[in-house]
């Protein structure tokens, strides 16, 4: 609980991918990227059914929700670029349960109205955020009700449910039952003692009622075996260890229904109108509903890859796999876990009034600017902090200045008056052996060969980081190459070279060609994270939509003695700055300069 409620620090163990792509045949080969083999998501005939959690509709979306969705979106887009294979990305809203029933009552509205309204807010947000979902599920839909009732019948048919009196603590905001050891006492706003969940701090209530129980305890051993046989099924690795530790403790049976007189807003238990199915069973089955359960899920199941926040890990890594095993289905192939966003060091909460609205962020930083910030700064194994100045500084320095500036410098009419993808000259930039003697290499310097090696390596490195759910590291490595390319450009001062001198023209064109080739690779690799900006960049370079897959990542083919289809091609139209510099709001400028306390 401590690990999960504060930050999960991996030490160094989670900081490196399992296999680093250094060398890996990429250096100097100019070969197109081959995805490393991995179960499910890579290789020929790959299939993946990526999912975000489905979101509660008791309040509007905030940046934490958006982060869950963006992680899944970036993984989905990345896999789509890897080559043949088919994937889906499902998201949606979790609309039943006591929490929603109470929120609707408090708002004086019918639950169905509240659900439709807030579900619409999530859907609109994801459209606006360019989340490329292929399905948006609402748990109030008839297809889902049917799936949940079939799932229930399957559990019952296998003798894994029984009726009993449940007595214990229930936490409505978290929609979960807690043991005595999971609660503590704290004073409430009026200073009265009140029982709360140790992990979330939310208030709990004593509940005593007759419920259906699921024989979860029977699955302790199968769960352990499944985890021990699939060491990479939960990543990052520290979360895998957390789940293993949970499985060393007692695993009591789970209450999976509530009395209907307390909870009307939910799916009734088939054949027992006095009971409503527990909202977490209802919610988890959404992953099967979107796969086509109960008739057509076999084509997709178990290629399920769930992205979840650390607060809902137990539901996904223990309850869900056990429920699946109980009905004779395989557990999901992959569970990706992320940590939480705080705001200026504090947990986001309505009472603190610090909940950050993602739509306001899009207005302030642009959609791609904010996508970039969350995915570049978000480290799944630990909590990350949001504040405005940090977004502005990062986005200006990496997108506007480093990337946008680089493009600007090498396509400016003053330096490239014909507006074409210039020619590469082998005599200026000779194919070097491993180490470089300047005489033999035309005008290229040792650092230039290092740049070529870095960019050659980059696609494999980026793919490896994506596969290991380290999108922030993928971006870090792209940025390092962008900076290296700026260094290359700066070093050779092409603006000082004279086009009228044939030898200088040759070298000038070669410098521009190498820079544009670097930008082409960065544009392709950045598509999963900043799709609109990457499109703008690639269109400016005149790279056609069908030339933007990972199979098109052969870097600098002319250097490797192969033809370059882009050489001599007219560049795309000028559509203004690649990425606008963000303004620091006036108040903050004063704060930064120390003019305001
Ligand atoms: N409805 C359940 C999930 C059911 S999935 C079968 C739920 N919903 S939620 O709306 O509360 O949370 C959805 C996701 O948002 C979770 O992954 C959660 O971790 C994530 N986040 C909520 N607050 C967050 C932050 N402050 N930061 C990052 N993500 C956070 O749980």
TrEMBL record:
Chain spans, region Disordered = 1-44
Which reaction(s) does the protein catalyse, per the Swiss-Prot or TrEMBL entry?
tRNA(Met) + L-methionine + ATP = L-methionyl-tRNA(Met) + AMP + diphosphate
- What is the top-level taxon of the source organism? Eukaryota
The record's keywords, sorted A to Z, are: Aminoacyl-tRNA synthetase, ATP-binding, Ligase, Mitochondrion, Nucleotide-binding, Protein biosynthesis, Transit peptide
Q: Write out the GO biological process terms.
A: methionyl-tRNA aminoacylation
Q: Which GO terms describe its molecular function?
A: ATP binding; methionine-tRNA ligase activity
This protein's major location comes to mitochondrion
Name listed for the protein in its UniProt record: Methionine--tRNA ligase, mitochondrial
Q: Which organism is it from?
A: Chelonoidis abingdonii
